[in-house]
Batch of 2 targets.
Target 1
Amino acid sequence: MKNFLNPAKIILIGALALLTSVNSFSQCKGFVKKQIPKLSPFIHNGQINSSVLLSGDHAELTLTFYSGQNYRILVTGQETLGNVYFVMRDASKTQIFSSKDQKSDFWDFTVESTQQLTIEVMVPDVDAPSGLVPSGCVSILVGFKQ
Amino acid sequence: MNSLQKLFVSGIAVFFLSPFFYSCGSNKENAETEGTDTTSMGKSGGMTKTTSKAQNIFYSIPSPIELAELIKKAGAKYNKDLLNPIENKSKYMTNTSKALNLGVYGADLSYTSVFDDNTQESILYLGCTRTLAEALGVGSAFDEKTVDRIQANTAKKDSLLNIISDSYMSTDELLKESQREGASALVVTGGFIEALYLGTQLAKTSKNGGDIINRIAEQKGTLDNVVGLLTAYEKDAAVAGVLADIKSLKVIYDQVKVSSASTSPSDVKTNPTTKVTTIGGKITYTVTPELVTKLTEKSAEIRNKIISGQN
């Protein structure tokens, strides 16, 4: 126990953690910026929805989509997370789309009536042999055009 | 690896990663809904295992550009007298006021840009957003390069809107990067309130006021998202004050009636050529004239408080 609390070890672990964290943060920022051009010819709504997620995590975003507009939802995850996919649900939680069996990471759609839809992002649960749960950046981007 | 080991390893990983967790909004307050078994971030930043719950991480608000486009498409005309006067930019002393009015001027910039022939006003409002962005320490979102790009693309509306959207994104990003998510939420809120103010004022004088009013009624869900976004940062006194104002608007919006039914599979059709899916189904928003008057007055009250620098 005494050995475990060695100050030098604590500093070393802390420094390694900080480096890992900063690297992860920078990696996420750079990752999202690379995705934005994939929204073209749609105009990005200007908001960054991204996060470092772990294997098995699940995230949601609810947004209003207006009639008369065309939309593109783009959901991407870093390779370490495997096949990240997303499901779209209406206000009553009825599934209206899943990208699980699609080859594309974006979906173009329009709504006949303005409504709130929820984008559920799923990160597959992977049992890593190394014992470390994989983590990586996931971004949800929304573009629109008339 | 058994589940306990996995949870422990996950907990260590998240403990180290949590100070740099980078998201749009509400990881601090988990809105839980029925869903799947998932691993999620606890409020302390540690890992918690929840069963049959889903974590709602993000709150997103339509951009002021999109709202300005909707208002224009509904038949509104351009009226520069409705914009926040540019000379007001020197009134904003507190960071709260600067953040809110950065959103307001951003919405005004969007409004001037979606209508044709307003290049001069777009440049003026770009100057206001730049001044406030610099005052908040995120001036690089509206740097010289951005100004040059806007001046070079005034005739290309889509390019112009993309540049403004990029700047909006950079502001959002820079504020979050410096761990000022509350300020980011205030920018978004200021933009939303200004767009709502413009819409309600334009509806009063427009021949197509009914179409604009429909768009205003449709903001009910978006307002819920604004409340959720601000609630995530309500421990910040400045955010809490703004949240109280927004909740007073929500009390009125709660009276807007929405009728809808679940989407059936037959409502979802994909065009095999364009690959664009159309989600059908009829959803109606019912708002009485009295309610429109209340929404108009309340949005003007909140907006005028913001632009007078009282926050």
Target 2
Amino acid sequence: MSTQKNINSQPENPINNHNELNMHSTHTDTTSAHTEAKHNAKEGNVITEMLNDHLLDHHGYNFYDVFHINLPVIIYDDALYTYPSIHSMEEAGIFKEVHHDIIRNDTGQAPKIDLSITALVMFQWIAMIIIFTSFFIIKKRYVRHPNKAPKGFQNFIELGIEMVRDRIVKVNIADDKLAEKLTPYFVFLWLFIFVLNFLGLVPGGHSATGNLAVTAGLSITAYFVINGSAILTKGIGHWIKEFTGGAPIGLWLIMIPIEILSMFTKPFALTVRLFANMTAGHVVILSLVGLIFIFKSFAVAPISVGFSLFINLLEVLVAMIQAYVFTMLTAVFVGLALGHGEEHETVH
Amino acid sequence: MEKLLTVNPGLLFWTIVNFLVFLSVFILLFKKPILDALKNRELYITEKIESAESKLIMAEEKLSEAEARITNATREVNVMMAHERENAADLINKAKQEADKVRQEKLDNAVREIKISQEKAFQQLKQEIASMVVLATEKVISEKLTSEKDFELINNQIEKLSKN
């Protein structure tokens, strides 16, 4: 996917349009219906910008204008450029930021690769800090009292670990040794997605799993785990044989392309499912809140806030379910890649 | 909104790197102390359960043995008690018979002694009466008797006799 984009061709900043809009609204010429329609369209742009601000990635983190964290900018174009923050990058004069994208000042083109540490990368680190801190807390007890019953927070972590191991990994991966080897991966995958999902529900937080690049990254690792475990366990010959789907030779012409395609559709489905589920809730909530600004009426507020609260509670459920679903489907795909698909189908 | 549907290669790269690095650190730091500890604890619990089950079986066997012993002992005790009851009843009967015999003997002795005492008393009474008759006769003979004096003399002797 090319990142070369002409950012200058994009419309102007809607916030500036909003200011412009205010100026228009104070204008004495109020008779034009066309102006009103334009006004509403630009209000919509403000809402879109608000959605973008919340859902898209940023080259820094701003907590309700209370504090701001500058994140390093790493760009590779004609050479490698590194800056401690987006401001120092702009001060250097080679690149500038327009609508959350970095472009070259001279050409107006996006750099070849933008490897900057963005807000969503930072949230992945925060998720890691949370996970590692939690595990360090309970680790002591496992070392000191390995055979004693779990207590307090240890119960919660153990519940998650045992759920992933016993209800996701063991039931889907028939090979016990492989299941045991892959358990740490699945536990970590579940925890990582679980914490990232919940970070999106925290005030000021961003849902990293509501970004296609993040879910694609997780799916790519899942893709290698699915196919890698099949090749390592059954051998490359068996893995290739699975492309026939166990069909007679006459159907191979149809089955092989389908199986090859399905090899890629599985991680694609994982990517889109998690992204769409995590984004949808945020879009609905922000749209409901946006109604207040569109209608400019306090009467809408209770309805909007009520529905937003309901959707937010639903999001808590979605955050848990999607972490489970992603992990479960990855385990199912590993199980299918090992060649147990036919058995599962006949059983059902 | 179209930006939402584009994949940022930089973020994709960092996600994969982060995930792999953190997964490696996670496995390195926590697999052995936590995941393996969980498995070991499960094994420990399974062993304990198996051991407890075998002990339970042994205990049940011992319990059934003990119950059999108790049943036998109860049966023996019942037999012994029945026997002892019979013995006790015999002893009581014998004791009753002996007591009746002793009582009868003592009663017979008492009756016999009373008869002897009565006979002795009659003998003494006879002797008394005889001596009084002699005395009265002596007085009657020494005095000139009238019918009134005889009558008074006899009455006095009879009163003396009744006082004794």
